[in-house]
Amino acid sequence: MSTPTIFLFVTSSGRAKDAPELVRETVAAGWKTYTILTPNVDSVLPPDEIYGVPGSHAIRGYKDPPLNRFPFGTMLVAPCTFNTFNKLALGLADNLATSMIADALGARCPIFIAPSMNHGLWNHPQARISEAKLKEWGCIIIPPYIDEKVVTMASVTDILQVLHQHFK
Question: Which pTM does this prediction carry?
Fold first, then answer.
């Protein structure tokens, strides 16, 4: 059996602060882990906190390996902001992350999405339309944690549980 490969896309949600832990855990699980950041992640934490996790592989540009290999593998968008969530459903590919995910959608690669946004955005009509469209296309939406104050990305433990099931 080959080593599972996961491409972790990190967007600029406040929960991006959990990305280094998620990267460490995927590497510890023995998965080949590539990290790709959307352009504004640096407003939440320094990119090197994610890119610098030992054992992971950073993809910073269109010519970085393994982008010459297609299809890529399993994709995980965690956390996924309202903006990226809707871009994916609308087929918009305006940066490296959304371009790779659009390619993966077309290639029918497994795509897992862990939304993280505020209540108003989660309840926005476009978010509901996007969720339905992404599910229709075969994406797995990892349910966010929702209470009266927040709609936030599932815990790292919950995300890993979903991925472990996928790689069984």
Answer: 0.96
CA distance 94 to 76: 18
User: 160 and 167 in contact (C-beta within 8 Å)?
Assistant: no
Digit-coded pLDDT (tens) for 100-142: 999 999 999 999 999 999 999 999 999 999 999 999 999 999 9
Question: Residues 69, 3: contact at Cβ < 8 Å?
Answer: no
Give the Cα separation of 43 and 81 in Å (integer): 13
* Structural domains present in the chain: 5-167 (3.40.50.1950)
